[in-house]
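[Automated response] Your request has been received and processed.

Submitted sequence:
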Amino acid sequence: MIPPNQSAEVRILYSAGPNLASNEEGINYRAKAVLRRYLSEFRDNYLSRHAYLHQGALRIKEALRL
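Generated structure:
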């Protein structure tokens, strides 16, 4: 977390990754990546900011581990 009126330096290093083997694998990977991104946004914007929702999510997570 960065406090208001503060700055942070971010550095992104790019390296070329391996090419995907086939178009079908690429579509599956992209679909999963999009789902992960949406779920991460939901977690960051809703679950982590509301104590009641966060506790419910933790209970569900623990139930799924069984």
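Summary generated for your ticket: The helical segments are 23-45, 51-65. The chain has a mean pLDDT of 83.
If you did not submit this request, please reply to this message.
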